[in-house]
Amino acid sequence: MAVTVVTNIGVLVSGDIKNTVLKDNTIIIRDGKIAAIGDGSLAEQAQKETPGVQVIDAGGMTVMPGLIDSHVHPVLGDFTPRQKTLDFISSALHGGVTTMISAGECHTPGRPKDPVGTKALAIVAHKSSANERPAGVKLHGGALILEKGLVEADFAELAAAGVWLVGEVGLGSIKKPEDAAPMVQWAKNNGMKVMMHTGGTSIPGSSTVTAADVIAVDPDVVSHVNGGPTAISPAEVDRLIEETKLALEIVQCGNIKIGDMVVRKLAKKGELGRIIFGNDAPSGTGLIPLGILRNIAQVAGMSGVSAAEAIAMATGNTAKVYGLNTGVIAVGKEADLVIADKPMGSIGSNALEALEAGDLPGVAMVLIDGKILVNKSRNTPPAERSVTVR
User: Fold this and answer.
1) Residue 201: pLDDT above 90?
2) What average pLDDT does the chain have?
């Protein structure tokens, strides 16, 4: 049984929007999952019970769940032809992202647009990302792009093959609510999660999607509610906030003003649990390896919520929407963790205060399933303190 102890934690961020910071300073990991959370005595007990246990001394730094990017457009492996880039997923890992959710493999060269082809692409992308995680990141690939000609039986076939995501409604030939709504219901009947493109035009060939369109289709996630990059009007966003309970995704490449508006309005309603964060990479805006951290810093620094709440939007909120066993530091959850600190020179005294000052923290270590995949980020500013492993 592989055992790892993370101890001497300065601030432990839970990822739970209802209870954002824990008082504990030690985490015990067994076989890739969190087995116990408590004080330093747990570390002593684990070392007595398990000779050779790995001990990670966090050096008083902040520990948080691994970040989840709720909106990525992968192809196969760690490559994107959209921006002609290799290792973009590895770069995101160095920004604390441990899980990615595909919004559709729409940039695949020669992407098939017939029913057989779109099903085949979803299946192969799903199985590829499950069989070999790009850079070690938990990429949930294979999001079906809805095309004309799909029938109800196709969704059962896809579900049997393991496909559980429907990419942004609107990426394919199915764009009108009257065409999309039946397919979305077929998907939900087969246990799939559905996201829907929202907002103004983003790249050539895209179209504007209104609040009325979203309400008629009833997806699980309103993709880039703040636009990608062009947002729908504040009045339209208000309709989505007031007339639905849908998850609202804020993306890095979107409209900053609308993103701020969404956070402030949902904070007043006590519904911050509806907000999730994505990058929408590789968008026309480009690849931003630290995009999820930038979302957190933007919201914590400008929108009147705490850094711990903003982190929950990038972790536990997304995990809840998509039914993932990660994103929250709790017993039984997958041990995907980020150890971070104030960057050198920040006015904050720890990672949370740095984020609330608008600074990006220094990522000192990233673990997935309890295994160290990053030991000092190559992309963030250096952390003030360091981690010791013994």
Assistant:
1) no
2) 95
